[in-house]
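Protein in question quoted for reference:
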Amino acid sequence: MNSANPMSTPPNATEKGAGKGMVTFFERLIFRNRPLVLLFFLVVSIFLGYKALSLRPDASFNRMIPTGHEYVQNYLRWEEMLAPQSNVLRVIVENESGYVFNAEYMETLREVTDAIFYLPGVDRGNLKSLWTPNALWTEVTNEGLRGGRIIPDGYDGSEQSLEQVRINSQRANMIGTFVANDMTSTIIRVPLTDVNPDTGEPLDYGQFTQLFEEQIRDRFNDQGVTIRVVGFAQIIGDLIAASADIALFFAVTVVLISVLLLLYCRCWRSTAVTVFTCILTVICQLGLLTYLDFGLDPYSILVPFLIFAIGISHAVQNINLMISEMSKGSTSLEASRATFRALFVPGSSALIADGVGFATLMVIDIGVIQQLAITASLGVFVALFTKMFLLPVLMSYVGVSKAGLAQQKKRNQSSWPTFRRISSLVKPKFAIPTLAIGVVLLGLGYYESRDLKIGDLDPGAPEFHAQARYNQDNAYILDHYTASTDVYQAIFTTPPEQCSQFAAGDLVLQFQEQMREIDGVEAVYSLYDRMKFKIMSVNKGNPKWAELNRNQYIMNDARTGAPAELVDRNCSIAPVTLYLADHKADTLERVTVAVESFARQFNTDDFKILLLAGNAGIQAATNEVIEYSEKLMLILVFAIVGAMVWMEFRSLKIAFALMAPLYLSTVLAEAVMANLGLGVKIATLPVIALGVGIGVDYGIYLYSRMDGFLQQGHRFQQAFFEALKTTGTAVAFTGATLAIGVATWIASTLKFQADMGLLLVLLFVWNMLGAILLMPPLASLLVGRKYGR
């Protein structure tokens, strides 16, 4: 065995030729100009830190949907007509005293309706409650049709007027839709525009919901009513409102990691510089977002912590090697330069792999995920500079304390019995069984992940726990109203002025009958239901006439007066609305398959049923995009990160050895998701890509260190053992520390943060264990014979 000092800095095989020249160039550049480097980072940090102060939460309905999807393009084409069923709030005004048809409650309902009407961003023309002019009733009498507004012109709050309002509500079939079945509450339907008409800028959902809280909830909850709200804007608003809790968990995690880092290195100076550099990375990342006119989407709000985690992962390697060098007598400057030479290539490669891995999320045609990809990639770009250039310079000034050096001296004197046992895993007699265990785990992961679903698996908003206010409001609607909040719309199109043809109506009625047979569809309604009612009405209410008529004049008359939500002005678009039991993934898939099957069978050049709109319909399109993109994203992230690893070590075998444990971690994470009932959706899809990006760091650093010892002439097992004593301890510490820090998220009041925390804990631990326990045995079987095991 080679007798070289096992703690000496091993040369890296990649630092030859052009690579060595690049390292030498940057080393001379930053260490000969340390004051200028610090001045540069100071100026940039002040500028970006100032910009970060103006960062605001940013959310958009259109960024939450896959705008490139064929079905969503149908929705966007007729958005003005379909939006009232898609980006809509349902405001429930519950009478705490019970019965709603009393003068005091009706006056409060009128005030609530008026207050909502003037909120910026409300689509006032489509706002609907018992008090709005578009709330109309009709009935059949001996003289023909009669109708009017739900609230009659002569309404005065008397018992007689209130009874008339109740009767009008029944005539308009609003019981179960706008009036609770038990008549203890009513609904105000509040469609929203994606642009604030007062400013011309995108609607700020955080500001809108805060204004709603102040002017509606806080104001009227003291007037004998309880205000409940469901809808996309409220979900986003509640997520933004919870950002303070997210920030608190971030702070707790930072403090916890700092304490663990201090216990590990026993040097407060190194700890302070490391944590400072990581926090500065996050601040500069946020500043860059603002500079590029980006906001921080609620679903991206956890990305800054991931960037902090990446920074810690790389900084620990820096501290570990720095302490090792100074324990041999090097000055802080000499140790810092040696650390820079040893870590620049593997560290830069790992960070670039991280950034490229995050960038693969751009293939998912959903704006919020693409923005997350940009946010994460920007963070890695900043980390590349702060970790590779700023941290070494700062460490060259502060060095390592005596306590830190004493701790390292104890480690040097240790016989490392645990690492000696682990290093024996690279022997064939242990490597093969170890890899067999990995294969078994892979098989179990595949088996358990077979039930992994795309989309939401629970009613309400899965971003929140079941006891959260939003989900309680949603449960109230399900308990007290017949009409579902999960609306799925198909779009029936005809040539202009042809929607009232008998053949058109007959096709839609056939479609409706088939849809009613689908499990999960509670009700179906369209223009042609109203036309049937009107034809019956003009024929003395005889139910025998409740059918479409082949006489075109009768059909044209039946269409007259239909509300804008049922047909457009040109009589060429007639939405068909399906009210679903829920928006679970299975329900949406069944309905989508049924609609697509009918369309393929019966669509003609003139009459077509297109998908889709409504909040549930758009969710179905989102699920389709995620289902397709998940596989593509995983293929790309593994292919691109694998290619980066190959470029680092110039060996396909080593690239495979580093990537295989990451793939196992991914499969196991999907198995856990399937068993815990977590669907693949906007909130969980990026976690796997982020986990792969962070996890590859462990393998790159560890094998890079092993590779250096192999170039010195060590056998494979000895090289692994020496690498474990330095880089291996840092990898184990980093994985365990990040897992412990993120574990605090599981206690979050936000379910999606708790879910992400659990998945990240598993990925951090599994990736760390894979790098230490699986990668070296696999590499030994693939290339170990070349060096001698």
Observations:
- The chain has three domains: 18-32+242-451+651-787, 88-191+203-240, 485-620.
- The longest strand covers residues 88-95.
- Residues 77 and 136 are 28 Å apart (CA to CA).
